[in-house]
Amino acid sequence: MTKIVMKKGATGGLYQTLKKARQSPDYYAEDLKLKVADAIISLMKNQGVNRTKLAEKIETSPPNITKALRGYTNLRLETMANLAFALGYRWEVTLVPREEGVSLFWMTSSVSSWGDIEDNEQYEQEITKACYELQQSPTR
What we know:
Blueprint: H1 13-21, H2 25-47, H3 51-57, H4 62-70, H5 77-86, H6 121-136
Helix pairs in contact: 3-4
C-alpha cells in the first residue's frame, strides 16, 4: 500500500499531494471506502437508524458497523449489499475513466478523533475547505 503523508508546511500543497496520490490504486480504494461509508451513513441519518439497529438487521455487532463505516476493515461486496438492503436500497456500479472529475478524500491517521459516525460535521467542514482550496489552486 502506498502511504502518502501530508506534512504541515510541505511544498506543493494539497493539489500536488492529490495529484501524486491519484497515480496509485490505493487512492481509489480509499475514495471508494469513503463513498460507501458516506452513502450508508446518510441513509442511516435519513431513516433514523443507529448502529445498533443496523447491526441487528444484518446480524452483526454495532462495533462491526463502526469499523466498516470508518474504513477499519475491508468491506466485502456481500457486506455492502447487506447494509444497503437492510436500509431498503441496492447498489449501482458505474466505472469512469480515472482522469474524469476530481474526487477527494482526507488522509489522516486520526479519523477516529473526529468523533463517532453520528458526528460528521467537522469531517464535512474539512472536506469542503480542501475542495475549495483545490478549486482555487492556480496550478489546476
